Amino acid sequence: xxxxxxxxxxxxxxxxxxxxxxxxxxxxxxxxxxxxxxxxxxxxxxxxxxxxxxxxxxxxxxxxxxxxxxxxxxxxxxxxxxxxxxxxxxxxxxxxxxxxxxxxxxxxxxxxxxxxxxxxxxxxxxxxxxxxxxxxxxxxxxxxxxxxxxxxxxxxxxxxxxxxxxxxxxxx
Length: 172
What we know:
Number of domains: 1
Low-confidence stretches: none
Number of helices: 6
Oligomer: single chain
Mean pLDDT: 90
């Protein structure tokens, strides 16, 4: 219950300070990539006789350099990530809407509606670039935290309503 409340409060803070939350997210993600790239590089160098060494080495370098650039240039990183997210919304929404309309499974209209909303969101994000890259990631993370917190509160409330089971054990 406490974690749910904390997530909701943090989510609201992320929405209120969406630009700060966006840059914090990009920088934290950059650090994760940089550290994982360093660890993967050490691993690749330790098993240099392995047949997959080159791919492992290149993957480590890509992660490390991407992390470094996200930390060094968070504005460009936020722009690039928002561009990728907008593209996913646009393309994924088109496929979801067309696929649902073609298959016509039960309640297919909701899937079409969801696809259309994704397409509209993708178009809005693309149309508002580069401004949307400053606030969207922090806003989206805030919304996600609020819903995750509400979900945890719901689970905690349901668990409280369960009957208490008292186990008795005989000493053997």
